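Anyone opening a protein record will find just a pair of labelled lines. A complete record is shown below as an example.
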Amino acid sequence: MNKLLSRRTKSMTAVALLALLAGGSTAAEYVPVKMDAKEVQKLQADRAAKLKVKVETKSPSGISLVLIPPAGESLRAPYWIGKYEVTQSEWKAVMGYNPSAHKKENKGQKELLEGLDTDLFPVETVSWFDCLEFCNKLSEKDGLKAYYELTEIERAKEEGKGQIRKARVKVLGGNGYSLPTYPQWAHACRAGAVTKYFWGDRDEDMKGYGWYDENSGMRPHAVGEKKPNAFGLYDTHGNVREWIWEMMSHEDTKIAHRTQAAGGSFQYKHQGCYVGAPRWHGAHDRLSFVGLRLARSIPTEEPKPADTPRAKPPAGVRTAYALMVQGAELEAIIKAAGIEKHTRTDLYFGTWHGLVGGTVEDIQERHRAPIAKGDVDVLLVATWSWFPQQEGWHKRVGLDSALAGLAELGLKNNPNFRVCWRSYLQPQTVRKGENTIPDFVATQKAQAAKTEALEKLVEAINKKHGKEVVNIVPHAEAGLKLVDLVAAGKFPGVTDPADLWMKEESFNMNVHLHLRTLSAYCDYVALYRASPVGLKPSFKGLTYKSKGGTEQSMDGVTAEQHAILQRIAWETVSNYRHSGVKGTKQ
């Protein structure tokens, strides 16, 4: 599978999920791509040219923003980020007050700050909640959509400013201002470096790039006075730390509790200013050394799904569904695509244990008869867990396996026969008190190794027949991409990756409606080697039951969610070398 899987984000959501898994340490693992300054700046300029924007721009409110290009799987879209930390004057212009501890009018600060323009100092003594409210108010001021929704707000009236002490937080997404996620912040800070600091590993060089305990006088300084990194950002390793979008919540609620800040500060020593040194603080904490830097999404060069011109629908094929294929959703998608003469047969193969552990002869003859007669063009099969890397007692994982036997059986009377075999996303889990929660960090690592075993078997089967008889549908990779989007707050309507599964069966077989829909889109791409982008399937009346008996309606998938899931499915399957779709135009 894609080697970029190692760069997947472990970003938090509004629930304690990933934060608890990380045990309170850094909430995201960002593996940088090493580039020198010239390469970084060329990449930045090339992306700006593609998007027909400038590398540096100013918001309607006058805040300087710098374009940051994508960085592999964890950061698949370009984004804007603040050139400087938000200043005291910028904060006051939006919020109407200046909460900073380091301003001349504060008791004990006049002598220390005499003759200095503290309006240009970074704002600090702002809580994470305050920063979300600032993002929303600035978005409204600049005519943009608010990125967050804050409800059940409790304010600290006694502090005189009405700052938020407690709130329920929901990510709405859109084009408004936000706090950067940790991968966004780290990528922007590193600017192609793989060292402790963006300039290298030498602690003694920090005096030229950042304000820290040895050169700051134990106070913040005006933004932009030190040297920038290759992207053109200032003060990422010093001055004040910066709130980022990483959050854990109170148990059993979505009320924000603890969050993270990244970067160095004027009162930190060298080791507190490394790139990979985010720390946890209370979401309501107001610290005199923590401020913020803004982020904002940027339109990509890709056309919107609704604007994508659709090609003539492909010809229908005779399809057989086996085991864990969600046929109803897939049929609705095929109907929306206008594909004629598509036929469906449901084949009974017994249990998936028998299929992956035995041979094709272990399937009853009457159940494999349609394949043997040449009446099936594509066999679409899904098993619970990966194949062939299964439990140790499964032995037949080579050319004597059931998968190899099905390929040979189908080719006897149908030279166009092929098998589409799903990889499967089964979350690894850990115990947290009385609850079981998914560990997506462990899941992504397990995924890469297990899919590699399936790839080797598929390559051996296809080599034997001299053509692609077996394809893999990369459901697991697509599912992890959706997990990443939810964790980054970029999938509207879902704030917790765990909500992509139904809890009653401990995250095993019962995926929720969004993962079911994504699976169906992936199957469609593999089956018809066509893009689903822009399709408008009707799921009206489609329901499914979990193993525990809970009935769910598929009507809950919104048009916006369909568009995102279509894009994930198309990009994942069409770019995967074992899917048989790579190179196909949308």
